[in-house]
Amino acid sequence: MNFRAKYDEPFAETHHINPLSDGGLDISKNIIVTCPNHHRIIHKTDAQFDYERLLYKYPNGLEERLILADHLEHKSFWV
Ligand SMILES: [Zn+2]
């Protein structure tokens, strides 16, 4: 979703892969950038993140790979 192209307003949300409330760290290695819709559905379905394949797995079997994942490549930073 490109808000800038449509609304002339750059817009995105961030999501903590490991929730802060579960002890996840507020560091870039634990954060992904999403559009608001994906952010809500990740929470609503409690989709699970696959670190190996850098994708979210939804309860209905759908898998969605991250587009912006370069910052997650080096697993040595994982919490
Ligand atoms: Zn979130």
The average pLDDT value, as a whole number, equals 91
Radius of gyration: 13 Å
- How much strand content do the residues show? 15-25%
When the domains are counted, the total is 1
Give the low-confidence spans: none
Bound molecules: zinc ion
Give helix and strand order, one letter per element, not per position. Answer: HEEHEEE
Helix content: 10-25%
Structural class: alpha+beta
Distance between the termini: 29 Å
- Tell me, briefly, the overall form: globular
Annotation field: number of helices: 2
Main sheet summary? 3 strands, antiparallel
Could you outline the blueprint of secondary structure elements for this entry?
Elements: H1 3-7, E1 13-16, E2 31-34, H2 36-45, E3 48-50, E4 55-57, E5 63-65
Antiparallel strand pairs: 1-2, 3-4, 4-5
Question: In short, what is this structure?
Answer:
The protein has helices at residues 3-7, 36-45; strands at 13-16, 31-34, 48-50, 55-57, 63-65. By secondary structure, the protein is α+β, with helices and mostly antiparallel strands.
Question: How would you describe this protein?
Answer:
- The chain is α+β, with helices and mostly antiparallel strands.
- The protein has one domain (3-78).
- Helix content is 19%, strand content 22%.
- It contains two helices and five strands, in the order αββαβββ.
- It has helices spanning 3-7, 36-45; strands spanning 13-16, 31-34, 48-50, 55-57, 63-65.
- The strands form two sheets. A three-stranded antiparallel sheet has the order 3-4-5, with no helix packed on it. Strands 1-2 form a two-stranded antiparallel sheet.
- The termini are far apart.
- The mean pLDDT is 91.
- The chain binds zinc ion (ZN).
